[in-house]
Write a structure and sequence with these properties.
The protein is of the alpha+beta class and 742 residues long. The chain is built from 18 helices and 28 strands. Strands 3-5-1-12-9-10-11 form a seven-stranded mixed beta sheet, sandwiched between helices. Strands 7-15-14-13-8-28 form a six-stranded mixed beta sheet. It is globular, with a radius of gyration of 26 Å. The model has no long low-confidence stretch (mean pLDDT 97).
Amino acid sequence: METRFIGKSVQRKEGREKVTGRAQYVDDLKFPDLLHGVTVRSPIARGRIRAIHFEDGIPWGEFTIVQAKDIPGKNCVALIIEDQPCLADGVVNHAEEPILLLAHPDKYLLEEARRAVQIEIEPLHGIFTIEESLARKEIVWGSDNIFKSLLIEKGNVDEVWSSADFVVEGEYHTGAQEQLYIEPQGMIARASEAEGVIVWGSLQCPYYVHKALLRLFGLPKERIRVVQTETGGGFGGKEEYPSMLAAHAALLAWKSGKPVKMIYDRAEDMAATTKRHPSRTRHRTAVSRDGKILAMDIDFAIDGGAYETLSPVVLSRGTLHAAGPYTCPNVRVQSRAVATNAPPHGAFRGFGAPQSVFALERHLDRVAEVAGFAPDELRRRNFLREGDALSFGQVVREKIDMERLMSRAFELSDYYAKRAHFEEENRGLRIKKGIGFAAFLHGAVFTGSGEEYLASEAALEATPEGRVRVLAGSTEMGQGTKTIFTQIAAEALGIACDQIDIVQPDTADVPNSGPTVASRTAMIVGALVESAGRAMRETLMRSELLKPGYDSSGFSEACDQYIARFGPLGSFVKYEHPRGLHWDDEKYQGDAYAAYAWAIYVAEVSVDLATAEIHVDDFVAVQEVGKVINPILAAGQIEGGVAQGIGLALYENVVWQEGRMVNGQMTNYIMPTSMDVPPIRVFFEEIPYGRGPAGAKGIGELPLDGTAPAIANAIAHATGADVRRIPVTPEALLEMLENVHA
């Protein structure tokens, strides 16, 4: 179908404001009588608070000081459950846990004051690994340290082992990863009995923050207002954590009666906020002599840190993706999110799937070797096809062709020729080359009944001048929300993109469209915008004020006449769950996702055996994502995700010491620079999805899933190293190579 704007790389909606410096980030905002706020945190991972001492030499009477006793409502950060306190009261459960808040007009004196507060804590024994938590050496949460456990069963794995020709086992680990958004966390709050609470901040989910402030202050919802300012990146790190920072700023504003600004520096942001969950995955796989996977027994565990936050959601995604895009008659996936005394881990792009997909794709290369197959041939014999069932019972109704994706990726990367050439040429060389790949899928939007529960909303409003305002709670944080909403609305209404205005998310103005997470913005909220646009157009056509074949000026005239004659012209839509999709939350069976993106990623690496340095030389990313709305933005999503995946695979190593991040600076937490990132060659296959706007599916999470395993498999091909843990830093690779040469 011919389109005017869909599939075109139209100009970014917010691009001019950003490149000219007119965009207003939270730290750019100024208020009269503004105070600055800081947080006093726990220096240890677990203990009882015995006393708080304020040292001499600081004019404490000038400061606003907030403790747990000053909270007017419930002392919690409301999310899925309410186990995390806004301010520690009596006990601390992780290093950097907030205990006390300070505010003062002079931010330099404020820092001196923060250092002059001494927290006297009686230490308690903490636990810091998944293994310690599961062993219950200490109970640090609930009765068993388990935030959430899941079980998926298909067939009967226990009946297969004795008759299988090959049984391969393996254990795989992934580390924490910092989101490293370019703009640190920041909030400004104004609060009083008369006005209620208003916060402005860098965030992904305004209604998450709204919910948290409702519980914290005990106010009616109309007296809480949350405004998203321009947001410099999020990647999941600004999904739930802004609720904590908004709460702190609002409490200081409430007590002081003045606006309060809280902006973290990079060190505090890295030390105190959420990161990707570390994971441990154990695989046991049965394979027949002809290369058929007969059984998969998977044990998946993630470290949730001290409080639950979003760990159940991350666990769910990782569990459902653990068996990959393969058909297997017998599958068991057991999974747990466990408590430790690290700062809570949270959302990060891919949330759970990168961890379990790394383990699966690395394991299948090992399975192929044991069974005597090339890595691609083993997968080819087991790929899902239309009509097959996933491990949790969902029947694939999409016209997928993983073999075709693989063939295209291999042709573009020259996979077969390079693999043979590298194996021949590597002998005796100090710098060895390798090539590897990963095959994977990623479910778009919320899992199972999640979208039904959210019941997202969006609206359009027309002005007499013929401009159309898009009202949605979905946020722009660099990924292109404003631009694709503009394209979708303009296409549905049949008008120019420059007639569309995107309303900045503000809970006083926009409906709750659900969080800006889970690759749902285009597919779910974009579809609502499309429906609202079509409904508005139909209203004008029925009124006979909008004539067939209209242009932009004709649309403007119709809007003017309609509003003059009938009053406001708007269209409000609410999510309706597709018929035919059914999910059982108790059994964890059924249609987990409305649609999937499918992909093959190929990585080429060089490994210097003398220094154990690894460089990614080339990267090919082929994916089927439904209709691409904006090719440049879509390619940018994949390129950025691959770059983050390279960091996850090779560089980004969070170093923990007694539950504290000890390398929380950009000088020693290493991330890939432009010199470390190869040409990332992005290719799309388009099979339009019937329920997405113009056929679009979600893509934002996808690239994190396959990048690290493709690189790890390439390293194994180059060196023979048995890569079972990421990141593969030079130190880690040297240990792996010792086993190769032993």
